[in-house]
Amino acid sequence: MTTASPERSGRRWLVTGAAGMLGRDLAELLGADDSVELTALTRADLDITDPAAVSAAVAGHQVVVNAAAWTDVDGAEAAEAAATEVNGAGVRRLAAACADHGALLLHVSTDYVFAGDGAVPYPEDAPTAPVNAYGRSKLVGEQAVAELLPETGYLVRTAWLYGEHGGNFVATMLKLAAQRETLDVVDDQQGQPTWSRDLAERLVALGHAALASTAPAGIYHGTASGRTTWFGLARAAYELSGLDPERIRPTTSAAFVRPAARPSFSVLGHGRWAEAGLPEPRDWRDGLAEALLRPAFAALRPGARLAEASGTP
After folding, report:
1. Backbone dihedral angles phi then psi of residue 212, each to the nearest 5 degrees
2. Which PANTHER family match (predicted)?
3. What DSSP line would sit under 190-211, residue for residue?
4. Which end of the chain has less neighbouring CB within 10 Å, N or C?
């Protein structure tokens, strides 16, 4: 658990799931924000399925950012009840505690609440129709926030998240560059690769706007702008890392059968950010280019590891 000094001025924020990829980015950003007094709780610190613990943790905070979640998409197919306990019932307990204690709730949800059979970006009010257990579990959480916090609940859907502090597609592709000459990557699923740091910055900005009463409650889409496929993302990551993008070869989803169905179209619209007085998210390529300069990603490049081992700059 990380807790800021009680003498620090400003609004009190609580981040749950603070040891995860997004949670760590949120904790770093808010920890450096002089207007915030931060409490950052990991899963070991707070089990969001425990009503008494949740109520005690939320008490005294003005903003709660929920980054705690069951994120194992394939695992949810075999354990939907367990996934829903975290992503649905756990979120309901957080929302109820926020209602009891007068706190705003910023809850992170997913593109998987949609069917993924669209052809144009899903607007925030598009009908939901999840195609897998994970999506259904997250939708239960969304419904709880909308029901219990109609004026103070903020749902931020994201997708294709990658970052420095956890396993993710971009890191995997860079690691595999040292192990395989070529890689076959799915080219029939479209989405918006989103750097977790960009999402964290957007959540912080939305929280401040909510406190200032300039951001209406409801649903926002926290993905990067633009669109690509997993194949396109892998090629871009290689090119930006000085690797040969031709090593990435396109294939179809049929070549990688997995327990949970994946939406083929996960492109989200960003129309509501203007209502909050905030700009639309930047293009996914710009976020990727900046992310790959960070030490955690730079260290994954095969050339970087060889240079380090030889002592050359």
Report:
1. -85, 0
2. DTDP-4-DEHYDRORHAMNOSE REDUCTASE, METHIONINE ADENOSYLTRANSFERASE 2 SUBUNIT BETA
3. EE--EEHHHHHHHHHHHHHHHH
4. C
Q: For residue 169, how many other CB atoms are within 10 A of its CB?
A: 16
pLDDT of 106 > 60? The answer is yes
pTM of the model: 0.93
Separation between Cα atoms, residue 102 and residue 44, nearest integer Å: 25
**Residue at 248: amino acid letter:** I
Distance CA 61, CA 101 (A): 8
Neighbours of 179 (CB within 10 A): 8
Which ranges constitute the DSSP H helices of the chain?
A: 21-31, 51-58, 73-78, 80-84, 91-101, 133-148, 169-176, 196-211, 230-240, 284-291, 295-298, 302-310
Our measurement of the distance from residue 76's CA atom to the centroid of its chain's CA atoms, rounded to an integer in Å, reads 17
Choosing from 122, 134, 154, 162, which is the catalytic residue?
134
Query: What pairs with residue 156 in β-bridges?
Result: 108, 220
d(C-alpha 104, C-alpha 95), whole Å: 9
Q: Which structural domains are found in the chain, ordered by start?
A: 2-167+193-225+269-282 (3.40.50.720)
Which segments of 69-132 does DSSP mark as H helices, in order?
A: 73-78, 80-84, 91-101
**Would residue 112 show up in a list of annotated catalytic residues for this protein?**
no
Q: Could you give the CA distance from residue 141 to residue 49 in angstroms, rounded to a whole number? A: 12
Question: Tens digit of pLDDT for each residue in 164-179?
Answer: 999 999 999 999 999 9
Q: Give the tokens for residue 54.
A: 């949740």
**Over the range 134-152, which residues count as b (16 or more CB within 10 Å of their CB) and which as e?**
bbbbbbbbbbbbbebbeeb
Q: Tell me, what DSSP letter sits at residue 89?
A: I
Confidence of residue 301 (pLDDT cuts 50, 70, 90): confident
The residue assigned the tokens 């710009």 is 286
